[in-house]
């Protein structure tokens, strides 16, 4: 098992939030589930830039933190699985919404910076 050389500082609220939301696609996954996208195949379609394996891994992590819950329909063939936000997941929605609003408001600037960085490389 991996042992951290520097202990995590989970006394800081920002670090706690980053611990739960870190992962490139977690805010997108949370937002998608909030908007009613429940099944893994639907999440894969809604976030095509993310590899299905990564989405599945991040769903498991979100489930471990109590942000999402998984409902399995054992009688369905093929097996049907759906994800829902828990009350803890709903409580993180203002953070996800703020990230979305900031990104939308600053999109043109950030895209310009990214293009300028690509042209230097």
Write the layout of secondary structure elements.
Blueprint: H1 13-21, H2 26-34, H3 40-46, H4 52-64, E1 68-73, E2 80-85, H5 87-91, H6 93-120
Antiparallel strand pairs: 1-2
Helix pairs in contact: 2-6
Protein name: Transcriptional regulator
Keywords: DNA-binding, Transcription, Transcription regulation
Pfam family, one: HxlR
Strands side by side in the biggest sheet: 1-2
**CATH level-1 class:** Mainly Alpha
Strand content: 5-15%
Question: How many strand units?
Answer: 2
Characterize the largest beta sheet: strand count, sense, and whether it forms a barrel: 2 strands, antiparallel
> What is the gyration radius calculated from CA atoms?
17 Å
Low-confidence stretches: none
Number of continuous helical runs: 6
How many structural domains does the protein architecture include? 1
CATH homologous superfamily assignment: Winged helix-like DNA-binding domain superfamily/Winged helix DNA-binding domain
Give the integer mean of the pLDDT values. Answer: 93
CATH topology: Arc Repressor Mutant, subunit A
What class do helices, strands and sheet pairing give? Answer: mainly alpha
Helical content band: 55-70%
Reported CATH architecture: Orthogonal Bundle
The ordered H/E elements are HHHHEEHH
Shape: globular
Determine the N-to-C terminus distance.
38 Å
